[in-house]
Each structure stands twice: as structure tokens, then as C-alpha cells.
Design goal:
Structural class: alpha+beta
Strand content: 25-35%
Helix content: 10-25%
Number of domains: 1
Strand order of the largest sheet: 5-4-3-2-1-6
Shape: globular
Distance between the termini: 30 Å
Order of helices and strands: EEEEEHE
Largest sheet: 6 strands, mixed
Number of helices: 1
Length: 123
């Protein structure tokens, strides 16, 4: 994602269920276009306005009013043609808000006020 979004702010925070790394044009989480959501047993790439994207390959999962996601089996999933096309479409849909001339910045925040206890991995 850093390669694809060189000017993005990376917003790292722990919500009630997972560790999240959001990617947006500013340090405001509400402006993020993507997030990588890291659960104990799975990792997903979320398209925060995924409902607006054409998905001819049927890669996006979810039935909510706005967000769609793709499960990331490995970093190689991000390099697949269909996934790259969806990332490009999401950026285009937002009017290409990223300033590639600006150096990206990572911001770590504690966002969740009500944290649930973590589940331990079995095995």
C-alpha cells in the first residue's frame, strides 16, 4: 500500500476488535479510503466506499451500506490484477486526493474507548 499510495497518511489504531491501518489523504480517519484490518486469525483490505465500486471479478465481500473488503491471504493478494484495479477505481472515485509529492506520514492513535478483551490464538 505504501508503494501505491506514497503520499498517504497511515493511521494506525486499535479498535475494539482489531488493529487497523487506515490510508487517507489527511490525518482525519473519516477521509481514509482504505484500511488494512488485522484480526487475530485474518487480515482484510477494506474499501471504505466499496459500495460505489464496480467489481466485475466479484472480489469484494460485504453487505453493509458502505464498506466492502477483500481477505488478504498474503501480501501477494495486493498485487493481483483485479485487486489493483479496485484500488485504482477507489482512488479515481475519490478524485485522486493523494499528493504523491508529499512524503507519507504514519500516525499512531488509541481510538477505542471500549476495548473488548483479545481472544488468544489456539494452536
Amino acid at each position: 500500500m505504501r508503494e501505491r499510495l506514497p503520499g498517504a497518511y497511515e493511521l494506525v489504531y486499535d479498535n475494539a476488535y482489531a488493529l487497523v491501518v487506515g490510508f487517507g489523504p489527511s490525518e482525519r480517519p473519516s477521509e481514509a479510503l482504505f484500511s488494512i484490518v488485522i484480526h487475530p486469525q485474518k487480515v482484510s483490505l477494506c474499501f471504505l466506499w466499496g459500495v460505489r465500486l464496480a467489481d466485475p471479478d466479484g472480489l469484494l465481500v460485504g453487505s453493509g451500506r458502505q464498506v466492502r473488503h477483500i481477505r488478504l491471504e498474503s501480501a501477494a493478494t495486493l498485487r493481483k490484477r483485479g485487486v489493483r484495479a479496485l484500488i485504482t477505481a477507489a482512488i479515481d472515485d475519490a478524485g485522486d486526493p493523494f499528493d504523491a509529492a508529499r512524503r507519507g506520514e504514519t500516525i499512531v492513535r488509541a481510538m477505542s474507548k471500549n476495548r473488548r478483551p483479545r481472544r488468544t490464538l489456539k494452536g
